[in-house]
Amino acid sequence: MKVLGIETSCDETGIALLDTETGELEQRLYSQIERHREFGGVVPELASRDHVARTAPMIMEILEQGGGPGQLDGIVYTRGPGLMGALMVGACVARGLAWSLRKPVLGIHHMEGHLLAPMLADQRPEFPFVALLVSGGHTLLVDVAQVGRYRILGESLDDAVGEAFDKTAKLLGLPYPGGPELARLAATVEQSTLKFPRPMVDRPGLDFSFSGLKTFALNTINRLAPLSETDRAEIALAFEQAVVDTLRIKCRRGLQHTGYQTLVVAGGVGANRSLRSSLQQMGTELGIQVSFPPLEYCTDNGAMIAYAGGLRMTAGQSDCNVSDVLPRWSLEDLPPL
Ligand code: KG4
Ligand code: ZN
After folding, report:
1. Confidence at residue 320, expressed as pLDDT on a 0 to 100 scale
2. Which residue's C-alpha comes closest to atom 7 of ligand 1?
3. Mean pLDDT across the chain, nearest whole number?
4. How far apart are the C-alpha atoms of 239 and 65, rounded to whole Å?
5. How far apart are CA 289 and CA 57, in angstroms?
6. Which of 1, 87, 186, 217 is the most exposed place for a label (fewest CB within 10 A)?
7. Half-sphere exposure of 19 toward its Cβ, with a 13 Å CA cutoff?
8. pTM given for the model
9. Which of 87, 165, 274, 298 to mutate for ligand 1's pocket (most ligand atoms within 8 Å of CB)?
């Protein structure tokens, strides 16, 4: 089955063409980061307009290279969660194209795309597993019994991890998106004399809270001001260590709680090297498999949507009568395969 995947939930236009039988994958990615940088964050209206300009030409290009639109068996797109206007662009293009070509169409959950992205690696994790989903909008610990059978074990009660990275980076004067910038700054020092709290680890349960870390960073910056370059790097490292430790403690609890032998880590913050090595080390200690998507599939992309959509379409799912998008949408509301 040849499936076209369209991702437009935030500030990346991702288009992919996936052959579900051969695994052959063609993809294009356009990042709007430069456009939003001067505003210090994503401006929703600008994001929608840029998706309008990019989506159709990128689809045309990928289809022309892949043998024309007639070869398609189905079209899938991100239906939510995400920015309302940005989602609507992808949904309208996908539905219009599907209607004109008389092909099935299906809306995909963005976080299911992230969650299944490790399946695009050579070594695929096996079900069941615990998934740690860490992006700019979500922090979720999920019990994944099978594709579509998701139970949320824990989530952030306030800021998502990526959001906390971005806000703390902004306090340190780093450009948007701050996560990778903060990680780069942290890597310039070997250790930090500062210690940030590990939020909510002394309470039972698997929920997270990250907004306090950002406030702690602000108070530290005010206390140490004016900051030297080393102070900035030590704050970045102390923040990163606190986040990584907190995520590791909760992942360990999630694995104990479910008894599963595999942990999957996905979403933009999954690209963080300290997080990757800390969780790998925990995996070795516990004798469990820890699986990450290839770096290019950690952040938003069309391939993960094409992959999740390909699985669902192969199982016969489509939703030709749906026309809305879902800016808020729980993984638990998805149908099983
Ligand atoms: O999954 P994603 O591309 O988009 C959303 O669905 O939100 O995640 C983007 C988030 C941003 O907050 C970005 O700062 C963060 O992932 N991020 C990182 C790193 N790379 C991306 N955070 C920490 N370290 C990184 N290396
Ligand atoms: Zn994402």
Report:
1. 84
2. 136
3. 97
4. 45
5. 40
6. 1
7. 10
8. 0.96
9. 165
